[in-house]
Amino acid sequence: MKNKILKSALISEKATVKDAMRAIDHSGLRVAYVVDEKKRFAGVVSDSEIRKSILKGQDIKSLVNKILNPNPVILNPKDLSNSQVVRAKIKELLSRMPDSRYILVLDEEGQPERLALCSELMEEQFPKRKKHHADRHVLVVGGAGYLGSILVRKLLADGFRVRVLDLLMFGAGPVEGLIGQKGFELIEGDMRNIPTLVKALEGVDAVINLAAVVGDPACQEKPESAIETNYLANKVLAEACKYHQINRFIYASTCSVYGVMDGDQELKENSPLNPVSLYARSKIQAEEGILSLEDENFSPTILRMSTLYGYSPRMRFDLVVNTMTKTAVTEKKILVFNGGKQWRPLLHVEDAADAYIKCLKAPVDKIKGNVFNVGSSRQNYQIIQIAQKVHSCVPEAQLVVEDSNNDPRNYLVSFSRIEKFLRYKADQDLEKSVLRIKRAIEKNEIKDVNDRKYYNVEYNK
Questions:
Q1: pLDDT tens-digit map of 60-79
Q2: Residue 127 covered by a domain
């Protein structure tokens, strides 16, 4: 396994900067090892140095030897017989790159021979760590939102460094408790502002874009802003990432792109798209624009999210489960429109966050250029079934079914692709989540459930 990783990280001194970045992405080592025409070790180049050089105007088509470090920390054969030298070199390597798991060992001819695990060489000084992401730096655009405020906490708990770029339209409250925490950084700003965007991208290894004018009503309220944010700004962000060789780019799309299904077959990622709203159309345009940028290095991934639900530091009450729970608790009424026969896939916000982390950890070849529906087949529900689940948790509420036809969306979705490719599984329980929201309302954890900050469309007026 280690030899396979080493092989993927080796490049010729005649390789380009772009070639080096591709080797880094595929090996997962954060560095590429450069060899001369006789296969002798010539030096090393890191992803951070590549990105710094690009910011200074370096052409990614130029030869890698222009930014080569010819004196990195490696082990020669004679070093291995001296434990003090080994100890000193590993300490130096870890001081430069704290997340390094391996150190390169050369043979007698100066050729890369193998990768040695630092933990095996120095187990008594450097016990095995549970987390290996401390030097991975992720930018989450829209990281203070409903999903983002959950995802950011999970990333930090998993050992990632996290930078959030957010307009803070709803205030800093959802991430306020993270400010000052090691590994967390908050930039208040708009991704549509180029200087702000460039600042936010500096030094990061991956980008997750959650920012959007979210939902059909909000997009109808401000259509120009929806097109600008959901499509144009997303394309610019993806292009900026490609230019800076930030090649892991994960975009939050929606299962709303399927719109109204024809028949009763589960919709897969290659099923025809049938959007019935500006929100869905803008997401399709963004998907197409982002995927068109894919090349040998740039590896975008599209996650089509099911309808989210559940408790979050930035709570929303304009999502079907959350809305039904709120009205059931506060008004003793659960309203169902269109007869409730239309299908809708559900996904707990915690499970949604896990999908992004799965993509960050997956080998780049597994996610490159891929589109995944995110959810669980067992949580494909008809609206009436959702209402009945909520009613079982709040039995004192009255279930009211109306035949109005104000929302034609109807889609039953397959999630077999993400389950197969990434071994993804949504674990959260719908009823338990309803009870959690019910408790939060009853115990006044959520102040004034009718406050406009809990409704995206109200904030876009």
A1: 999 998 899 999 999 999 99
A2: no
